[in-house]
Amino acid sequence: MTVHSAQQTDLWPAPTASGPVDATVHVPGSKSVTNRALVLAALASEPGWIRRPLRSRDTLLMAEALRALGVGIEETVSSSSTLTPGGDKAGEAWRVIPAPLAGPASLDVGNAGTVMRFLPPVAALADGPVRFDGDPRSHERPLHGVIDALRALGARIDDDGRGALPLTVHGGGALDGGPVEVDASSSSQFVSALLLSGARFNQGVEVRHTGATLPSLPHIRMTVDMLRAAGAQVDTPESGGEANVWRVTPGALLGRDLIVEPDLSNAQPFLAAALVTGGRVIVPDWPERTTQPGDRLREIFTRMGGSCELKEYGLEFTGSGRIHGIDVDLSEVGELTPGIAAVAALADSPSTLRGVAHLRLHETDRLAALTKEINGLGGDVTETADGLHIRPRALRGGVFHTYDDHRMATAGAILGLAVEGVEIENVATTAKTLPDFTHLWTGMLEDRR
Ligand SMILES: O=C(O)C1=C[C@@H](OP(=O)(O)O)[C@@H](O)[C@H](O)C1
Ligand SMILES: C=C(OP(=O)(O)O)C(=O)O
């Protein structure tokens, strides 16, 4: 698969459901886990394996960028294909071979928050200049937390002073590290970025978040869990440390053999389909314990009218035929907002989604985009200071624009299940994290188990 910018402007007629869905959907691996695994494996002192990696635009950009810095990443068919009940590509794996990091290099981050934020600290450890650029939207997404913190920790960075891309990190082969303050209220990825490379800084790193709010805490926990699994010593607020302070002790990282969990945020549209059609969807390999924010869907979609059971083979989620509105704080799980908004627009009562002001700086301004597009189909959505108020109304068909946002595309598909004549513009933008989306979606509608 080539790493391309999804510029296609075709209209995809979103299929309506002819009845309750009844399907098993194998959801590909987690973007957030795959990209953390790549960074940690690249920084390790020995080779490692990443099994069942997500292959999507965001993760291929991460792999390409690390290769450009000298890291070996080999695609292989692993010997452990038996690990995978029914997943066709599941035996495939990446072998990551760390090497001295070096510039000059020119990295394309696309519109991947994980790539544009996790890699500048890695580049600070490289020897030589590393230039970062990406899609036009990447120039608007906040990066000041990473830039300012790296400078405070001893890095030299050339940028245009806006706290955003493009920029060049002049890596010196090592970084002092130590204590640093960051306002991560616009993205938890600032904290994750500094922690992920922190074990390789001379003094490690101590990150103190100074802002009033901090979104996406589960993603910071994911960073901490994965660092610990790679042998790093990490002190956190949860492990008895100070509130809003994370500390990584300097030291070598181990090469791991890691199996990537299915992407639970990408499972969302499929679970939503069960809810919207009063059907049933099984997602195999749903982890029993996970830091992925998508695990909150079990609770949120249950409150919205479904029921679920975590079985040995995966999650079985069943809709009741009724969809209820919800009043919910999504600050920890912001990336679930578009899918929840779509379901809420089809509910039997109003919804209020709170705590997600930072979504205005995601792939697109998601609060504005959801309001405009759902209202464009006849809906009644208003933006609040930190979220959305959604009053369900009968919807009609029309074009649903995606603004190069994968989660807008999947939100439109959810609406299309219940509303005839919804056409998704640039559904190919789902390639950011789920290149197979349209096949999985039509497959789900045909599958009757
Ligand atoms: O660290 C990660 O993998 C992510 C953190 C979150 O970012 P924000 O904290 O910027 O919302 C989330 O929305 C994004 O999809 C993935
Ligand atoms: C916000 C998201 O992505 P990113 O990693 O680009 O921030 C997302 O996937 O919903």
TrEMBL record:
Residue numbers spanned by region Disordered: 1-20
Pfam families given in the database record: EPSP_synthase
Protein keywords: Amino-acid biosynthesis, Aromatic amino acid biosynthesis, Cytoplasm, Transferase
Binding site for phosphoenolpyruvate: 31, 113, 141, 189, 366, 407, 432
Residues reported to bind 3-phosphoshikimate: 31-32, 36, 187-189, 216, 335, 362
Domain Enolpyruvate transferase per the UniProt entry, residue ranges: 17-438
Top-level lineage group: Bacteria
Main localization of the protein described in the UniProt heading: cytoplasm
One annotated GO molecular function: 3-phosphoshikimate 1-carboxyvinyltransferase activity
Catalytic activity: 3-phosphoshikimate + phosphoenolpyruvate = 5-O-(1-carboxyvinyl)-3-phosphoshikimate + phosphate
PANTHER family cross-referenced by the UniProt entry: AROM/DEHYDROQUINATE SYNTHASE (PTHR21090), PENTAFUNCTIONAL AROM POLYPEPTIDE (PTHR21090:SF5)
Subunit text: Monomer.
Protein name: 3-phosphoshikimate 1-carboxyvinyltransferase
Gene source species: Streptomyces fragilis
